[in-house]
Amino acid sequence: MDKLEKLQKKYAKVILNTCLKVKKNQKLFISANYEVIEFVRILSNVAYELGIKDIYYDLTDPYLKHDALKNLEIKDLKKMQFWNKEKWNEYASSGAAFVMLVTESPGLMKDIDPKKLSDLTMYSYETRKCFDELRDKSIVPWCIAGVPSLLWAKEVFPKSKKPEEDLWNEIFKICQITKLNPEKVIEEKINNLSRRCDKLNSYKFKSLNYTNSLGTDFTIELPDNHLWASGKSKLVNGEEVLVNFPTEEVFTSPTNNSASGIVYSAKPLCYQDNLIEDFWIKFDKGVAIDCKAKKGEKTLKQLISSCPNSNKLGEVALVEYNSPISESKIIFYETLYDENAACHLALGASFPECIENGPQMSKKELKKNKLNDCNNHVDFMIGTEDLNIVGTTVNDEKIKIFENGNFTKEFK
């Protein structure tokens, strides 16, 4: 076993043991791209060593997917496993743990109608509603982790002779896999993020105002009973899992009718294998009313109008400009990494965990608390080196949360 394979196995162990805390004889559901099948095999063998006997593979070939989109109508495409996700419901209902291995194929879908892509993405969410509901109620253990493909690695390292290996090494570094005891380092990071959440929660902010030199001037309100959270999620059975690996963020869900002003992107967004670059979105009374992009504007507009309430915000997340991923100076073209390098917002669904007793609430109760109900959830990055964020408390006290791209001393 060479050095790369040893680190890949160590990475797989951390995903299953530290992030998901899988149990012997628990079912496992793996969602992945065929291009990363070698790592799927490594992950599976680690799972077998842990006593897992039932693994379901939801595998997607991006090129087969592209060709199907090019040649078939939506009624025929809906029959394919690329978009019909009913199997997710079956495994979620039976107590399975879910690993979503993400990779990117930037630009692959540039010749596909964005509306067609969007309609099928919404169909995928419709067919896996049971999974989504159990996840939102903190019943299903799940984790998203990145795995390099050649196409993605070439986009990140276009001049490299070994782009996949280079991207693997960056992921190992970011996820602490090269450390002697990555589990301990990850635990310390999560504990620090949890303490930051506690500090933010203590202020009971009612609104946040963002400004920077790109032109961002934006205000959004928070529910009275909002909670800040980190990448650690506490399940109803008491187990704590890490749902995003890696994670550098603290986040909450805003009210869905309050966003006003304009926000400018700080990094490209790869959405449905299409790149959206150098864009801005203008909001009024919670709704995105206008947008422009130098590249991918049609895709951006389709994203905003993809389904009911996809033109409203469901998340505000704070990440320091001096975070480890940001300091790598690498644009990953994959939201899992780029969102952990910059403050970001998300169009679409809110998180029930971000209000008191949210996971136990019905959809009607969540709506009453002004959380956004949507089938989609797409993060986009707005954090810059000079971003300033001022929070206003329920007592109308102004508190600097971010200054010049980073948390003020109060929140360190």
Describe this structure in words.
- With 412 residues, the protein is an alpha+beta fold.
- The protein has 14 helices and 20 strands.
- The chain has helices at 3-19, 37-49, 62-71, 74-77, 86-93, 114-127, 129-136, 150-156, 163-174, 182-203, 297-304, 324-327, 335-338, 363-368; strands spanning 28-33, 55-60, 97-102, 142-146, 205-211, 217-221, 232-234, 240-242, 244-245, 250-252, 260-264, 269-271, 274-284, 287-295, 313-318, 344-348, 377-381, 388-393, 398-403, 406-407.
- The strands form four sheets. Strands 5, 6, 11, 12, 13, 14, 18, 19 and 20 form a nine-stranded antiparallel beta sheet that branches. A five-stranded parallel beta sheet has the order 2-1-3-4-9, sandwiched between helices.
- It is globular and about 60 Å long.
- The model has no long low-confidence stretch (mean pLDDT 96).
